[in-house]
Specification:
The chain is an alpha+beta fold and 268 residues long. The protein contains eight helices and twelve strands. It has a five-stranded antiparallel sheet, with helices on both faces. Strands 6-10-11 form a three-stranded antiparallel sheet. Strands 7-8 form a two-stranded antiparallel ribbon.
Length: 268
Amino acid sequence: MSVEGALKAALEKHCSHLGSSFVHAGSSRIKVEPSGKLLFGKVASPEAQVLGEAASLRALRKACEQAGLNDEECIVPRIYGSGTSEKEGRTSQGYLITDYLTLAPGLDSSGQAKLGRRLAQVHSASPPERRYGFQVPTHCGVTEQDNTFESDWRTFWERRRIGSLVERIGDKRLSALQEEMQSSGVYDLLLNPVRDVQPSCIHGDLWSGNVGTDKATGEPMIFDSSYYGHGEAELGIAQMFGGFTQDFYEAYHEIVSGWALRTCCGGR
């Protein structure tokens, strides 16, 4: 069945160089004719969430390129286009078009090591500017992330990751605990030692559900959000939710060392 509507317009705008027509080949899967190339395409609401995902993929893809990773080694899919689709009388939607990946859940030992090594290379790439945050809001599930840029990591984490959520939740007890953490020096103790660490392009929500193996290439892939922050925040999330083996951590630490020395009993 031919692709119609807003998605067809987006494909013709961004992907006409790939083929002359586009047909549905399953849910969110588009086949380009006559080449047979498969694309992932979606038009969805809320617009900001889709555009945040697109900006995240672009940032991670650029960091992969800066790290010297080739197309096969890149840990995120190629993005062809994104934008806003508006229909009269309807709320605007966001659209996103990328390469279509058939992913197997999880990573084998080799994939764990490859991802650890490549993630460390991405974290070592120089960011566009020395600030912490991101140019657009992104989402963790349905929760919008406050990515307002800050000049140091301690301020970003305290205000934009913890403080922003506490404020939006609006719970008096939680707000009191936040104030206690500030007044008692908890943030000073935990974050002042890494206040001026160089920002990296990180995923920010790295767990086993956001990782898979590309069945076509056997390479590890990640997807969804990103922002410019401390690379060790990536490892903290990965360790908290699990899904990563010693192969992953050892390969990462071959390139970026020191994290294990700053943890208590393997993590904090």
